[in-house]
Amino acid sequence: MRDFAYARAGRAAEAVQLVARSADAAFIAGGTDLLNLMKDGAEDHDLVIDINHLPLAGIEESGGRLRIGALAKMADVALHPVVRKRLPVLSQALLASASPQVRHMASIGGNLLQRTRCWYFRGEDFACNKREPGAGCAALEGRSRWHAVLGGSDHCIAVHPSDLAVALRALDATAHTLGPGGPRTIAMADFHREPGATPHLENALRHGELITAVEVPLPAPDTRQRYLKLRDRATFEFAVVSVATVLRMNGQTVEEARLAFGGIATRPWRSPEAEAALRGKPLTERNIAAAGRLLVQDAQPREDNTFKVELVQRALQDVLGRFTGGSR
């Protein structure tokens, strides 16, 4: 890690100004990913602006929505009574993330901005368009077990690692930001980008733009929710496949299905086709299987990750199948 300067911001606007005026500056909150990126040489910053003292850690319910400050810790959000009661899919996703120590340190905003665990990105000896635009992508011909089967391009097939972001996509959340041009609201559907020809541009934020809060509409009390994470070991591991479901039923018929997936795509993934296949139908094994086939109809697996195509369909069957018994 090279030397860098450190400064502490007292106000959000001050933090934005400090980062915006220097191309090599970055915000730091929990630092659980940023410092590792700097140690690994995947990112270099001349200046980091500490935002931990900004008043952005509150969690407030108002008007049928929950506003979560960007500096709220993952553990605090996971255990918040409104989250546990009304947003169990969010609580489950957070509790499935990282280790207890990391969850008590890492912030909600930082979690959304964590970068891929692709070892070609994290290793300085490999070509990576995400780390150095135009350098090439070693993953395309390399070991692909952890890589994406959906949303990839000829420039990048790295998956997004956040469990939180998958749950927030299923919940139709929005991010509130403050940038040099003022405040902005970004739907979670538009927050993370597919790599295309510019995989180094991973999200919709502009340089100097700070996430201030995440806002989640509270689903109806009888909405069924669940997060399932399949991983190689029981703790402190990223998802091989994950599924977040938010389901509203009318008797035995699905009225609304929101399905989001992690571990299989270059960003938290929604499948309108799979959701439409369930809407207005009973939640039978056959209908779930049809939705699963639509989810992976455009999948482009590689030699090492072909198994994900079947695994994610089985995960969807498991998640939705448990709802047929009325459990939540």
Provide an overview of this structure.
The protein has 13 helices and twelve strands. The chain has helices at residues 12-20, 34-40, 74-79, 81-86, 88-95, 100-103, 108-113, 119-122, 163-170, 188-191, 272-278, 285-295, 307-321; strands at 5-8, 25-28, 47-50, 59-62, 65-69, 174-179, 182-187, 210-217, 224-230, 241-250, 253-262, 269-270. The strands form three sheets. Strands 4-5-8-6-7 form a five-stranded antiparallel sheet. Strands 9-10-11-12 form a four-stranded antiparallel sheet. Helix 11 packs antiparallel against helix 12 (285-295). The model has no long low-confidence stretch (mean pLDDT 96).
Highlighted features:
single chain; 328 residues; four-stranded antiparallel β-sheet; 13 helices; 21% strand
In short:
By secondary structure, this protein is an alpha+beta fold. It has helices at 12-20, 34-40, 74-79, 81-86, 88-95, 100-103, 108-113, 119-122, 163-170, 188-191, 272-278, 285-295, 307-321, and strands at residues 5-8, 25-28, 47-50, 59-62, 65-69, 174-179, 182-187, 210-217, 224-230, 241-250, 253-262, 269-270. Helices cover 29% and strands 21% of the residues.
